[in-house]
Design goal:
The complex is a heterodimer. By secondary structure, chain A is an all-alpha fold. Chain A has helices at residues 10-36, 39-60, 66-84, 91-98, 102-107, 117-124, 131-143, 147-153, 158-174, 177-184, 187-202, 220-233, 238-258, 277-292, 298-310, 312-315, 320-333, 337-349, 353-361, 365-368, 372-385, 388-401, 405-416. In chain A, helix 2 (39-60) packs across helix 3. Chain B contains 4 helices and 6 strands. The chains are: A mainly alpha, B alpha+beta.
């Protein structure tokens, strides 16, 4: 056996397990799920394998190829389950499973698993799946997060999220087609919903830039990891690079946003000396590479806006005209509530107050009523117009719709300063 | 679907109501929240409650009455008020709960309202 000579210590085993869980979990679940066409069963089998590893590795030592070891055990687990359920032995499945010989697998340290993670991610975020569970499903299956970790970040009840995940996995199992669809689906559309889910996990929308709202979910590192993976798997696609650049621009500014301790520092008041210039340069480079691929898209435009904001680090000013023009493009091709509000603010900053006002008022009232960034923008524009009383009322509404103490305090200060 | 949001406040938080220095900020937070809630058109009913010390707790065990003034002594959080809202899902109810001052300074319990029998 190609095992380490000495038994491993508990700490070592835990460390290796954690590493395996982080780096290989998604790969192993993806491979098993695709052979078995059942995500829940694949996850259960892998959980069992991780448990067995915790029992065995302290005595036997950590195998040279932990991935292969875990996969072998998980496979055996799945086959046993299969037999236990006395389902008709499907020779095709069994054959697929046995293609990689078990003993062979454990011995070979250079064993490389076919990477099905892209297909798994596309399956998790498939347009046929309820939008609200796409991101949690991906976080659970690709990164191995527990429901207890994900639910609070998404402001969902753990019990109801768990229920919805079980339901969607059953649905996926019942309709094999989704797996196949993921392989052959309209790739650009599939990738767009996948990128949206990753962006959702990152949780900083363009809304935060004018001090409107922080939606930090604490999953930013994971979102960047998933997007880097996607860039690796799809080197010729521009939009994943756009999203990665966008997230890096936002991350690069975080130290400056946090510098205020308990008080929120909006983008325009941030000390650029605290921005991570190396990260900004990397993001700019990524964005240029994306542009060169000539596949324009939403995330590249969003990233271009953030790049323009980061411009202040090098030039000392914010190019509002350019930002307003970028939002015009975005609102023409990929309008969202957030981009229309942010675009209006950019217009106002660029000196086109009247156009900004018209754009802000054109948002559907039923949407605007509960949309906190709209009220912040409204208050801002009314302040510029000099209508203090109406601005104060708008700030009140924004405060009532805010969830974060830092933001509430910031808005209260803005309101009191009128 | 109707949900009840029950706002619990710490003793320290609830005492702000009568502290001349802290009261304006305390009430401003609640007024902004209640304003946004009302404008959303989802409020079925709701009330704030007076200071927990004004409450009386009653129980009958084996025919014997027990009446205590104020809240249980060991309670760290007190029910400060409630709203019943009509929204589409628990997710939406949680979103409104998260916006309340009590979410940051205490806690909010969200529970679906039991529909009348026969519905």
């Amino acid at each position: 056996m190609a095992m380490s000579d000495l038994g491993a210590t508990g700490a070592e085993v835990n460390q290796t397990l954690e590493q395996v869980a982080r780096t290989a979990y998604g790969r192993l679940v993806a491979w098993l799920a695709f052979q078995w066409r059942d995500i829940a069963a694949a996850e259960d089998a892998l959980a069992e394998a991780l448990l067995k590893a915790l029992q065995h590795w302290p005595d036997s030592g950590i195998p040279n190829n932990p991935d292969a070891w875990l996969l072998t055990v998980a496979k055996r687990e799945l086959l046993q389950q299969h037999r236990r359920k006395s389902l008709l032995a499907d020779s095709e499945f069994i054959q697929l499973f046995n293609e990689v010989s078990e003993d062979d697998l454990v011995e070979r340290s250079s064993f490389a698993l076919p990477d099905h993670r892209l297909a798994l991610m596309l399956t998790c975020t498939h347009p046929a799946i309820d939008e609200a569970v796409r991101m949690p499903l991906m976080l659970q299956t690709v990164l191995g997060f527990s429901v207890e970790q994900i639910a609070p970040a998404l402001l969902m009840s753990p019990a109801s999220l768990a229920q919805r995940l079980v339901r969607v996995k059953k649905k996926l199992k019942a309709t094999h087609y989704v797996f196949e669809l993921a392989e052959t689906c309209d790739l650009p559309q599939g990738i767009h919903t996948l990128l949206e889910a990753i962006y959702g996990a990152f949780g900083v929308s363009s809304d935060d830039m004018y001090g409107a709202e922080i939606r930090s979910l604490g999953l930013q590192r994971e979102a960047i990891y998933l997007c880097e993976l996607l860039c690796e798997l799809l080197p010729q696609a521009a939009e994943p690079k756009g999203l990665l650049a966008l997230m890096l621009f936002c991350s690069a500014r975080q130290p400056a946003q946090m510098a205020g301790g308990d008080s929120f520092i909006p983008l325009l008041q941030q000390d650029v000396a605290l921005w991570d210039s190396a990260m900004i340069k990397r993001a700019d480079q990524l964005l240029l590479t994306a542009f060169a691929l000539r596949q324009p898209g939403y995330f590249q435009l969003e990233a271009a806006v953030q790049s323009a904001h980061c411009h202040r680090l090098f030039s000392g000013f914010t190019p509002w005209q350019a930002i307003a023009a970028l939002y015009r493009q975005m609102n023409a091709y990929f309008p969202t509530w957030g981009s229309r509000v942010a675009g209006a603010v950019a217009l106002a900053e660029a000196g086109e107050l009247e156009a900004a006002w018209v754009q802000l008022q054109s948002l559907d009232e039923s949407v605007a009523r509960n949309f906190q960034p709209w009220w912040v923008a409204q208050a801002h524009l009314l302040t510029i117009k000099g209508d203090k009383a109406a601005a104060k009322r708008a700030y009140q509404q924004a405060i009532g719709l805010s969830m974060h103490k830092k933001i509430i305090d910031h808005l209260v200060r803005q309101c009191d300063s009128l | 679907m109707q949900y009840m949001m029950m706002f619990s406040e710490t003793t320290q938080e609830v005492n702000k109501r009568n502290d001349p220095e802290a009261a304006p900020a305390y009430w401003a937070g609640w007024m902004a929240y209640i304003g946004a809630l009302s404008d959303a058109g989802i409020v079925v009913s709701g009330n704030g409650l007076q200071h927990p010390s004004t409450g009386v707790t009653l129980s009958i065990r084996d025919g014997k009455r027990q009446i205590l003034d104020g809240p249980y002594a060991d309670t760290k959080e007190h029910l400060g008020g409630y709203f019943i809202i009509e929204v589409e899902s628990l997710d939406q109810a949680l979103e409104w709960a998260a916006r309340s001052p009590a979410a940051t300074n205490g806690s909010v319990q969200v529970r679906p309202v039991l529909p009348p029998p026969g519905q």
